[in-house]
Amino acid sequence: MPRVSSLFFKTAILFLIAGIAIGLKMSISGVHNVTGAHAHANLLGWVTMALMGVYYALAPAKAGGRLPMIQYGVYTLGVLIMIPALYMLLLGKPQYEPAVAAGSLITFAGVFLFAFVIFSRERATV
After folding, report:
1. Which of 43, 59, 118, 125 has its CA 20 to 30 A from that of 86?
2. 67-116: per-residue pLDDT in tens?
């Protein structure tokens, strides 16, 4: 399995753990005000990162080079900024809104890089 694929899977499982922890906190407390952070951790963190890992595993020719690792780093950074900031924003702390916006834009940049990888030509294998 390509290294970038393995990194996506390892990071995805950490976001799944975080998403479940947020869900458990809401369930136990009966307060569901951070549902958005829970959903983003599960969908952007777990599902999307796992799918990116699957793509790179199925297209190993696209997984080589620096761009996939840069894409992993940018996307992961964006999600790592966005989810905790969104959690705090949903707890009623509006000062975290700029961090949510920054994390969202960085995540979006990571998605654009992934699109570039997908639409680029495969490298010739020797």
Report:
1. 118
2. 999 999 999 999 999 999 999 999 999 999 999 999 999 999 999 999 99
As given in the structure block, the two tokens for residue 94 are: 């509006």
Q: Residue 106 and residue 88: Cα distance in Å, rounded?
A: 18
Q: Residue 65 carries which side chain, given as an amino acid letter?
A: G
Q: How many CB atoms lie within 10 A of CB 63?
A: 24
CB contact at 8 A, 50 and 79: no
What is the crossing angle of helices 66-90 and 48-58, to 10°? 170
- Using an 8 Å Cβ cutoff, are 87 and 22 in contact? yes
Domain range for 35: 3-119
Residue 124 lies in a domain: no
In a domain, 125, yes or no: no
**Among candidates 95, 104, 102, which has minimal Cα distance to 36?**
104
Q: What's the CA gap between 126 and 122, in Å, rounded?
A: 12
Counting the structural domains of the chain, the total is 1
**Distance of alpha carbon 18 from alpha carbon 90, whole angstroms:** 16
Alpha-carbon gap, residue 18 to 11, rounded angstroms: 11
